[in-house]
Amino acid sequence: MDSVLARALIEDPTEDGRLPLFLLFLAFLATFLITRTITRLIRAGKGPFRDRVAGGVHIHHAIPGIVLTIAGAFTSVAVDGSSPGAEIAAVLIGIGASLVLDEFALLLRLQDVYWEREGQLSVQVVSLTIAGLGLMAIGIDPLSDHTLSVGHLVIAINLPFHVAGVLMCVAKGKYSTASVGAFIPPVAWIGAIRLARPHSAWAKRHYSSEKRERAADRAHRFDDRYGRWGLNIEDLVAGKPTASPAVSGQEPSDPKGAA
């Protein structure tokens, strides 16, 4: 496995047709970083950027993202893998998909939770996507590699458990754990099997009052020791959320996301 990864890192991505995928990965990552920088400048009232409003309607960046993703998909089919159309399509899809997934939580809830704690779900989804694209960009594609090795098989078997672990961490309100677990699978697995955060959707649906008390006690002890560190890392990436709950009339979500 180590030799496969080392060889992939030094190979030229243009030699085996991986250039479009490599460009898609770079476009996706760069767009996410630029988008988060711009939105945080808008929120702080700094720089030349402002929210896009047309006819009193706030145009979220997921809208141009959908347009670019569709345009890239159509272009990809039309050029049938030929250059430079394939590379152009890859960049369009990378930019568009990044814009859409950056507002994943907003689209899921149909509410503007971008700067709420619930809105940081978008960062977990983007992190998982970057991890997957990064593996494929350096040539680790266990689903289509004809020279399948033991290392590739391990990745193929691990992938469903990896995704399930990250999603379980999100359901249990462990957002920081999900972010780290997107890149380090064992972190997600451990977070998935441990007690949920007391105010998470998982705890509300599946825990008895006694188990929620246990979860609350454990979360309190964990946060006293590690919570601020994990929260600072997450806020550094996603931006510090507002103090008010995302949905009026509902119990505020747990302000921490590790454990």
Automatic annotation (TrEMBL):
Keywords: Membrane, Transmembrane, Transmembrane helix
Name of the protein described by the UniProt record: Integral membrane protein
Keyword Transmembrane applies: yes
Record-annotated membrane-spanning stretches: 20-38, 59-79, 85-109, 121-140, 152-171
Organism encoding this protein: Gordonia soli NBRC 108243
